[in-house]
Amino acid sequence: MRVTALVILNSAASSSSSPEAADPVVLANATDVSRFGYFQRFAAREFILFVARTVANRTPAGQRQSVQHEEYKVHSYNRHDLCALAFMDDHYPVRSAFALLNQILDEYQKAFGESWRGVKVDATQPWPYLTEALTKFQDPAEVDKLFKIQRDLDETKIILHKTIENLLDRGVKLDDLVEKSSDLSAASQMFYKQAKKTNQCCTML
Amino acid sequence: MCKVRFGVVELEMSSRAGKSTYRDRTQEFVKAVESLKKTAPPAPEVPSLSDALSLDSYNSAASNQSEFNKRASRIGLEIHQASQKLAKLAKLAKRTSVFDDPSVEIQQLTTVIKQDITALNSAVVDLQLLCNSQNENGNMSRDSSSHSTNVVDNLKNRLMKATKEFKDILTMRTENFKVHENRRQMFSSSASEDSSNPFLRQRPLASRGHNDSSAPPAPWESGSSNSSTLFLRRTSTDPSSSTKPLIQQQQQQMAAVQDSYMNTRSEALHGVESTIHELSNIFTQLATMVSQQGELALRIDENMDDTLANVEGAQSQLLKNLSRISSNRWLMIKIFFVLLVFLMIFLFFVA
After folding, report:
1. Which of residues 175-204 of A touch B (CB under 8 A)?
2. Which parts of the chain are coiled coil (chain B) (predicted)?
3. Residue B242: predicted pLDDT
4. Is the pTM of this model over 0.90?
5. A28 CB contacts (<8 Å, ≥6 apart)?
């Protein structure tokens, strides 16, 4: 489960009716292309940006969308013309992806306010939050609280199952002990009676 | 002159009686009409419903009419078949046994019926267009045009009735399914999460459209929610033929928009809630088992106390034994001495 790229775009100018709609403008970009060979990294980055622009162009305002592209799933969320995209593989849960996009958008709006609306040229400086988000959120549990809760609950359930098994074993052993102790008390009673009998028998001598 | 009826009329009367005895006699009628034209007899007796044909402009009118009648009769037959399938579906949906759920057949039948109804929709629309074009051509009498409009309206009404029945059957089916799921939940311990899904899914469909490509749900659920929302919208507008082509577009839209982000979130929440319930169950079971085993421990304790008492008693007995045995020797010595004394006295008396 990995996240390959996170991109934020300004898709204000994209409207389906105008044929010469301006492409969405990249506002922030974080890509993890370490999987590719050294010479392919630049091409991969360009490819990611291009697909990001296309998908952001096609996502209507206020909507979420998921597109399957080769082996990547691209999730995009367009909120008031600020579009966030995430490229991830198929195993990443979709809901966590959208939660991640929500969080990124919130952070961006907190950090930059509304200044991004006027930006017409692709931003070239990386945004540190995005890059660390990319590394931090490789595991969906970090970003999606529900996922983390579900995972913790499942672990707790496993532990409880093991506990109940141990308890059953304890029950079996206790049963065993009960048997043995009752045998022991019967034997001691026989011993007592025998001793009393030999005691009484000996008085004549 | 034999009485000749329209194939349509015969079909309508037979389908109303519930039998599917359809005989298409339009060919015979056309032949009879042509023969009539040749011999120019007095007006043939026709039933009141078929007073459409006038003696002039037979050819074009006849061919138009026969085309119209053929299609109308075919549509009527298909409507009848669709209503038969609806009756079968109603019977299947009414079966409320928990274990023998024919959901696969129901879903298949539902899709088949939906396809039939959409095909019938388009056929009726075409028929109405043909009727309008014929009316505008102007070479039909007033009665024939009124007859054709009557036929088209009749077919439309029957189709609407059939679709309303379909919607009722589907709502009944979803209610029954909900009841099934409740019963199943009572008897089994695993929580099922898709009991409320068909109704949950309708809300985001109604509020906003989302595009998401996660795994699709069970198709019959989507089918039922599709058609129930579709028919809710249909009955709110007036039942004209213009809404019928829209149904197909709405259907495709909603099939694409099925699983939205909100759905997955609500499902995740339900999952978390059910996990917590299971955990609470496990904890209570744990508590009962521990208390039962506490009882066992008490029994063991009692047994050990008994054993201890018995062994102590036996030990005291043995000690007494020992003391008596050891003290017995002393007694024996004393008895021997007494015996010796008696012996001495006996010896003294005798000697």
Report:
1. 175, 177-178, 181-182, 184-185, 187-189, 191-192, 194-196, 198-199, 202-203
2. none
3. 52
4. no
5. A6, A7, A8, A108, A123, A126, A127, A130
